[in-house]
Amino acid sequence: MKKLLFIFDTDTPPNTFDVVVAYDAGADHVTPLGGISAANVAKLVEGVVFTRPPSAKKFTALFITGTNMADGEALFKAVRQQFFGQFRVSVMLDSNGSNTTAAAAIALLGKDLPVAGKRAVILAGTGPVGQRAAAMLAQQGALVTLCSRTHDRAASACEAMNTRFKLAITPAATPELPAVEDVLQGAQIVMTTGAAGIELLPEALWSTHPTLEAVLDSNATPPLGIAGIEMQDRGTLRHGKRCYGALGFGGLKLELQRACIAQMFEANDRVFDAPEVLATAQTLVLAR
User: Fold this and answer.
1) Which of 19, 46, 132, 212 measures 20 to 30 Å from 33, CA to CA?
2) pTM, to two decimals
3) How far is the CA of 191 from the CAs of 47, 110, 258, 264, in angstroms?
4) Are 233 and 215 in contact (CB under 8 A)?
5) How far is residue 167's CA from residue 53's CA, in Å, rounded to a whole number?
6) Of 206, 204, 233, residue with least CA distance to 218
7) For 168-195, how does the pLDDT look when each residue is reduced to its tens digit (9 = 90+)?
């Protein structure tokens, strides 16, 4: 029985990145579909759950992606609402690579530094990766502040994650550098998840910071989001702090995405969102 993966992308056209990774994960056939939403997905789900017999349903799986986290969340929920009894297949949410990127970073950090009880700040955190990183850190027991240029944007992102995962992430506005300095007071962890090519944290600020223990940057396009670190950093000690760059956890992100896709074909009822993806990432890190 061939392993079939359908990619539901909320954008048009669908991206090619996830298609390549899916084949590398062992899928026999990958069908990327763009412009998929909660409003038009029902017939697509019916097509995959009513075809193969119960014993063979595990050979069909769904992967949800797209650049907008809210759209991905809505689609993820709509897909799962179509399932009942054994009429279901495994499904994974990874809008803009958010779950796998965030999980790779947090799993590597967690191996080097216990995060429970630490204060963590996510700068430019309203995008998919920032929201998921905030959620994962909070789920691990960190006290998390998610930042944006405006308080309203930060508050909206926090509300979405707090509601979805029953957390208590705190919003903060950081329109200028002085606000960044203020929000970092007493923090041990800072992660930047902003747009490519925008420096958010100068080296002079974090290098001499009295409480920071770890800095993470998801940007792989110069200038980096955090000045003074390298894209390949993977727990590298700089100025006495552990540094993680986008390429430093990028390899694990790809390995993780492949692992999650492969696991979807092991049963017809696997669900991969932030908690499940992070747990898989932690397993991969511990096995190294």
Assistant:
1) 132
2) 0.96
3) 41, 14, 24, 30
4) no
5) 39
6) 233
7) 999 999 999 999 999 999 999 999 999 9
